[in-house]
Amino acid sequence: MNKTKMRYILDEIAKMFPDAHCELNHRNPFELTIAVLLSAQCTDETVNRVTATLFEKYNKPQDYLNVPLEELENDIRRIGLFRNKAANIQKLSRILIDKYEGEVPASHEGLTELPGVGRKTANVVMSNAFDVPAIAVDTHVERVSKRLAVAKPDDSVLEVEKKLMKLVPREEWTLTHHRLIFFGRYHCKAQSPKCEICPLLDICPEGKRRMKKAPVTKRGGAVS
């Protein structure tokens, strides 16, 4: 993949999703950190339903420590891996109070030291809460990057991130992250990508393979 082809991809996706943005509801860096932590292996839609009441009950780190773990678990029970996530939220809250005066650290290193906060979460918080350019590689970004041959099929998440960082201008990292997510979530879906109407089909190896296999006709009707 070269920068010219990447530019074409970015421009086409920009036409499709000009208003792409973070879909996790939050009012501050702390709420965003909690929301992204909860979103692992869970849809943003489900997270937003849970945090609608969660963020009314808990406003700051101390609030999460003022309740028994079982109560917090019950509050996020609709979220996958809720027990593990509840434990991480309390551990994270304790560290924020003890080490950062209750504030979310505005550094990648500080964020990734927090329980339940990996590189992806840290990138989301840095870019959306602190306006530091970053590309967070979630399942959508990874899938789209590999289908479009921006990255190799066996590349790690970190390798995908590094390749995108080289190909995309730094000032566009955050917006590209959002647009790739929208493209993967609403167009280039995991199970049923819309290859037949995709403006990138001509340069997409995966799309071309899928279209060759696509419609076979049986008894006069199209069967996919």
UniProtKB/TrEMBL annotation:
Q: Does the keyword Isomerase apply?
A: no
Catalysed reaction equations from the record: 2'-deoxyribonucleotide-(2'-deoxyribose 5'-phosphate)-2'-deoxyribonucleotide-DNA = a 3'-end 2'-deoxyribonucleotide-(2,3-dehydro-2,3-deoxyribose 5'-phosphate)-DNA + a 5'-end 5'-phospho-2'-deoxyribonucleoside-DNA + H(+)
Q: Which residue range or ranges hold the HhH-GPD domain?
A: 38-186
Q: Which residues cross the membrane?
A: none
The UniProt keywords, alphabetically, are: 4Fe-4S, DNA damage, DNA repair, DNA-binding, Endonuclease, Glycosidase, Hydrolase, Iron, Iron-sulfur, Lyase, Metal-binding, Nuclease
**Which InterPro entries does the UniProt entry name for this protein?**
DNA_glycosylase, Endonuclease-III-like_CS2, Endonuclease3_FeS-loop_motif, Endouclease-III_FeS-bd_BS, HhH-GPD_domain, HhH_base_excis_C, HhH_motif, Nth
Q: Which co-factor is required?
A: [4Fe-4S] cluster
Q: Name one GO biological process term.
A: base-excision repair, AP site formation
Endpoints of the signal sequence = none
Where does this protein hold [4Fe-4S] cluster? 188, 195, 198, 204
Q: Its Enzyme Commission number? A: 4.2.99.18
Q: Does the keyword 4Fe-4S apply?
A: yes
The note on the cofactor says:
Binds 1 [4Fe-4S] cluster.
Which Pfam families did the record assign?
EndIII_4Fe-2S, HHH, HhH-GPD
- Can you provide one Gene Ontology molecular function annotated for this UniProt record? DNA N-glycosylase activity
Q: Which HAMAP family match?
A: Nth
Q: What does this protein do?
A: DNA repair enzyme that has both DNA N-glycosylase activity and AP-lyase activity. The DNA N-glycosylase activity releases various damaged pyrimidines from DNA by cleaving the N-glycosidic bond, leaving an AP (apurinic/apyrimidinic) site. The AP-lyase activity cleaves the phosphodiester bond 3' to the AP site by a beta-elimination, leaving a 3'-terminal unsaturated sugar and a product with a terminal 5'-phosphate.
Which protein family is it in? Belongs to the Nth/MutY family.
- Mind telling me what this protein is named? Endonuclease III
Q: Which source organism? A: Cohnella ginsengisoli
